[in-house]
Request: fold
Amino acid sequence: MCQLFISADDSLWSSKTKSLRIQGVVTSIRLEVFFWDILEELSFRDQMTVNQLITKLYLESLDADHDIGNFTSFLRVCCSRYLSLIADGDLSRETRLRLEKVDAKNIIEREALRKHQRSALFIDSEGNLSIN
Reply:
């Protein structure tokens, strides 16, 4: 199992810092190259630059009253959820369908149901976590 990860291109986990301007304030974001690649794919899908995508995510997070004290973690989770939703069949890597056009409410409901079903697999009859 470990060779699947250890033998991967080691540049994927090297960090890269990019500077951008959000609401007139210059900021830097440091992420692994792997996550920058996913953000590039996400921005391509919705026909914007990576900086525009990051700014949009930041502003929409503020509008939703999210605590974005660790914005880089939020970006990593966004990328990971995107790949997870593809793996689960809720999204396609088809780049012609913009993410702003998907039925987010329905996808989030299915995701929550799957999370509950997966959790149930690891709970024994007495409600204890059954993974050793």
About this structure: The helical segments are 2-6, 33-45, 50-63, 71-87, 104-121.
